[in-house]
């Protein structure tokens, strides 16, 4: 079957003052895949996520999403791209003065013709899909555990039935059981909804459990992409250490134990 590049980056340059974070970076993300982005601290994983999600403009290069040049999009096209994508930030980035349900309803307010009753019902559905109990809808973020806040952030990212979701370190700060449950949730949502998932992570267990493909950021670009098996054969020092180090071995043992 022909692969469709739902996201296509060419020649991306990201710069803050004199600091060049990305230089001539290319990447394709295939429709329906879970792509895990890894790299050393400060290699620009979050900046890349923000660039693709339209939250910052690259200094050079193009971002195509759904075949549209997002870097040249007019207001109408940008709104359409925003509707077809969802973003979940590390801490959930929820509004503290709103309940979980109200947070999930925020993106829906931009959609004409949704009555408050319908918004509420849709928000409850997303809350439930994200593995939260019904009762969580009436709670404020401060009343939730870190793991529940992440799920609430995911529910909000799913609010408009996106085709792509961006997840920034979804399992950071979760205990191993919570992290593993979140991995299962992401994989399940991707498979059931045909979602494309772009996730930034340091978590080797997440790479094993959820990702179809991995992209490694190093030397200001995407150094290599491929499956976990492909990564094991890469000779670059950082990539080798990351995928063969003691943590990698532990993650591999955990994965084999679960199969
Ligand atoms: N708004 C900003 N202003 C100035 N520099 C920034 C800004 N955002 C990011 N940077 C710089 O860009 C580089 C990449 O940051 P980014 O957060 O994308 O790294 P990362 O790979 O996600 O790191 P980590 O794994 O530690 O989260 C860093 O050197 C950071 O200081």
From TrEMBL:
<keyword id="KW-0067">ATP-binding</keyword>
<keyword id="KW-0547">Nucleotide-binding</keyword>
<protein>
    <submittedName>
        <fullName>ABC transporter ATP-binding protein</fullName>
    </submittedName>
</protein>
<dbReference type="GO" id="GO:0005524">
    <property type="term" value="F:ATP binding"/>
</dbReference>
<dbReference type="InterPro" id="IPR003593">
    <property type="entry name" value="AAA+_ATPase"/>
</dbReference>
<dbReference type="InterPro" id="IPR027417">
    <property type="entry name" value="P-loop_NTPase"/>
</dbReference>
<feature type="domain" description="ABC transporter">
    <location>
        <begin position="7"/>
        <end position="244"/>
    </location>
</feature>
<dbReference type="InterPro" id="IPR017871">
    <property type="entry name" value="ABC_transporter-like_CS"/>
</dbReference>
<dbReference type="Pfam" id="PF00005">
    <property type="entry name" value="ABC_tran"/>
</dbReference>
<keyword id="KW-0813">Transport</keyword>
<dbReference type="InterPro" id="IPR003439">
    <property type="entry name" value="ABC_transporter-like_ATP-bd"/>
</dbReference>
